Amino acid sequence: MACSKSDFICHIFEFTKEMYIKIISCLSLDMQKKRASFPIKSWADDDKPREKLLHKGRSVLSDAELLAILIGTGSRDESAVSLAKRILKSANNNLSVLGKISVRQLMQFKGIGEAKAVAIAAALEVGRRRREDQDIKLTKISGSEDVYVVLQPILGELEHEEFWILYLNNANTILHKSQLSKGGITGTLVDSRLVLKKALELGAVSLILAHNHPSGILKPSEADKKITAKLQTAAQALDIKVLDHLIITEKAFFSFADHQIL
Asked: Would strands 206-212 and 162-168 be described as parallel, antiparallel, or unpaired?
């Protein structure tokens, strides 16, 4: 069936439009790929992470740009920023998740050697400790939530178990917090003599016990209960109270006192 001249022109116009859009899209994608592979030193100063930090401040940089500064250089195929974005994507763009990735896991990324992986791990650990120092200004304990606020930054993200003690005075103010053991928690690892010796040295009148469950399971085990009873009995002989025992995970906690099993 013959078509009119106007129909033919319309078809040509639509075809040309589609081809134009495809060409522009391809060119845009190609430019993005080239940009990702360009070394950062070839970028405009306003786009360079280090220069942005110096001239505009730290807050304007994205997580990927901050990570790129730690990485320093990328590879022949991608810039440090592109590499940083790929690393962050593997951690769901979550710095807390990234902080749990081991040095060996980081080294699996092309362009990340041991030195860069160690630098990333060290920076994330510094950030965690900074949060611990700045956010944990609370020294007076009025309940289990206060204990969680104090100890979650220390225990919440660990991949192994640790047992900690908080030593308190008459006003329930924290005199000292210390790690008692590291690794699997069993009754043999908890030396009640060391705990009470420290309490007497500090003049503490009460204790709060805490350990983490890397599995995320908050239910106390039989070993947890035995440790609590052991320390409670030993402390009573010196008129020192065990106020609580917390099981801590990244997002939640279980309190023996709140559940009336202390």
From this structure: antiparallel
With H, G, I as helix, E, B as strand and everything else as coil, classify residue 68.
helix
pLDDT at 77: 80
| Contact yes or no for 195/187 (Cβ under 8 A) | no
pTM of the model: 0.56
| 132 in Cβ contact with 153 (< 8 Å) | yes
Q: Could you tell me which of 101, 149, 150 has the C-alpha nearest to residue 123?
A: 101
Tell me phi and psi for residue 225, to 5 degrees.
-65, -40
- 125 CB-contact burial (10 Å; exposed 0-12 / middle 13-18 / buried 19+): exposed
Tens-digit pLDDT profile for residues 117-155: 999 999 988 887 776 665 455 578 999 999 999 999 889
Helical residues (DSSP H) of the chain, grouped into ranges: 5-37, 49-56, 63-71, 80-90, 95-98, 103-106, 114-135, 144-155, 192-202, 222-236
